[in-house]
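Table 4 source record.
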Amino acid sequence: MKGIILAGGRGTRLHPATLAISKQLLPVYDKPMIYYPLSILMLAGIRDFLVITTSEDKPLFQRLLGDGSQWGISLRLAVQPAPGGIAEAFLIGADFIGNEPVALILGDNIFHGYGLEAHLAHAVAAARNRGVIFAHQVTDPQRYGVIAFDGAGRPVAIEEKPRRPASDWVVTGLYFYDPAVVEIASGLRPSSRGELEITDINNAYLARGALEIIRLGRGHAWLDMGTPESLIDAANFVRTLEQRQGQRIACPEEIAFRRGYITADQLRRLAEAMGATAYSRYLLGVAGESAGTNVS
């Protein structure tokens, strides 16, 4: 399976903080924002990545991420010339996807919770012949794509940013699809916002009877980081988890080590290159442990 991280856009809701740098390169407590979505797709077992960003930010992502080989993965970059909607990622990445299933995650999303890896593994397996999306309950569903259910609890429609939401279950920024998604995206027409909407793709799969929805209930957290308030909320969430548990989340280096992509010696070298930081000391501690522990 291929993995795409959509890290384009202008981050206008975070101006002036994002006037000179991509939102997805901002720090979220102890690591760059893009580490969080990257770690989710790595936890799903994906090792071949495309990061879509702007032409201005591409060199900065190149400097931060390289080609991914330091983490035992393959990573390349592509440019989205102007904000054209989430679904445009499948057109930009069409050659990269080829005839394989693909996962797409938004570059400003954090997911965390017990059992998340099992959900990801199921989504990877299921996406061989259908679409799989993740849903979460929120208090402000009118800001998102809202899922409507029938009396038996089956999804019947998804509406983008409705004035009167049919439920409080919304579509998160994590999507898994079979290779047909490229053809579906190619047939979309821009919405009134001038964008190719991911909701139209999800409704196309729903109309085919080929859309599975995984509900992330209590015990799972989903955060996006599009405003100053949500950015600091996310940073505080990560800080609380890491200080309470003594374990760090969303560390590509640790995930690569636990999954056997890199050796303990390689992990040590990555840690030592970061200098005398708390992040480095944590990774050095992980390098001294045996592989195989679950991370999230």
